[in-house]
Design goal:
single chain; 334 residues; alpha/beta; Rossmann fold; 7-stranded mixed β-sheet; 7 strands; globular
């Protein structure tokens, strides 16, 4: 994929508005259930939505605020206020903003490469609202795979938002179809459940693994990646995924497990014939949101990827890789 000029950009002296928090009593009660009953993996979906909501100057996601909930919106907003008042070199949530834009742009390019129509599968979909907000999916069938309680809660919140908020009342699914598939990608039967829901392995497919692989064990993540790679033997297949390196998983060893320091070597070994890797801050992965040359991501990009600690200060080299892999029956690696 050619290097892209960063379209969105961070305005000078941008002042972040406080979250609108347009919540009805029903939505507040639903988020109270999330706070009480969900574990950290499930709640991470709300954290991601909060990042999209508070970076609304570059990401248009009208559902993000209601899907995030007050707790995560307020928490991130306080961090952003602190960063801006301290003139931080990178603002909290920027990595989520860049990651979202990278996935959006590469998903659009992938769908266009298929002639505008594809199957799009979001594994660990969480509070993702792409099926509602991306008009280029109008000829594509979208499948969201996640825990049953996550998908049910998400649908209930969206319906409550449509019924109670002006911004959402006319919101409709932008994709040709939206299919929610209750399944756990840690189990062996998630692909079977996907096919029961209408997924056709022989149709061109874009697979999205955003913010999910590192929560899996090594064996679980490799099983998911191998299953997707096997699809390359049936049809033109594109995978969009983000990978932590080993040092990044050390941020929380009880939460993050799977890592790959060299995902651009891992994916070809599984059967993807064409793999492209970017780091946050690269020309196709900054969108004008990381202007300071001394910010964390730009400092890391200048170092060899095999370094585990920064030679200047000894800090861990924590990297997030944005990776596209593709393959087709005519290109399958023996």
């Amino acid at each position: 994929m050619p290097e892209q000029e960063p379209e969105p950009c961070l305005p000078n002296n941008l002042e972040w508005p406080a979250p609108d928090l347009p919540y009805s009593d029903t939505i507040q009660e639903l988020h109270a259930v999330i706070e009480k009953d969900w574990d950290s993996l499930r709640r991470s979906a709300c954290q991601t939505a909060a990042g999209r909501a508070l970076w609304k100057h570059v990401i248009h996601d009208p559902l993000a605020e209601v899907l995030a909930g007050e707790t995560y919106l307020n928490s991130l907003y306080e961090k952003i206020k602190k960063d801006t008042s301290n003139n931080a070199k990178e603002i909290s949530g920027v990595i989520l903003a860049v990651r979202t834009l990278w996935f959006d742009n590469n998903l659009e390019a992938a769908v266009n490469s298929f002639g505008g129509a594809a199957q799009v599968v979001l594994l660990g979909a969480g509070m993702d609202a792409r099926a509602y907000r991306l008009s280029f999916l109008k000829e594509s069938d979208v499948y969201e795979v996640d825990f049953a309680e996550v998908l049910q809660m998400k649908n209930t919140i969206i319906q409550a938002a449509i019924n109670s908020t002006t911004e959402c009342q006319h919101l409709m699914v932008a994709a040709k179809s939206l299919n929610r598939v209750a399944g756990d990608i840690k189990d062996d039967n998630w692909l079977e459940k996907l096919q029961i829901s209408g997924f056709v392995p022989q149709k061109k497919t874009v697979w999205i693994l955003e913010g999910i692989l590192y929560y899996l064990t090594h064996s679980q993540a490799m099983s998911v990646l191998k299953t997707i790679a096997e699809n390359c033997t049936l049809t033109h297949t594109i995978l969009l995924a983000d990978f932590m390196n080993k040092q990044s998983t050390a941020l929380s060893s009880s939460v993050f497990h799977f890592y790959s320091d060299w995902p651009d070597q891992l994916l070809p070994s599984l059967g993807f014939s064409d793999v492209k890797l970017s780091q946050i801050g690269d020309p196709d992965a900054n969108y004008g949101l990381l202007p300071d040359p001394l910010n964390l991501f730009n400092k890391l990009r200048s170092l060899p990827r095999n370094l585990q600690t920064h030679p200047d200060d000894g800090t861990p080299c924590r990297r997030l890789y944005l990776v596209q892999g593709s393959g087709s029956p005519s290109q399958v690696i023996p």
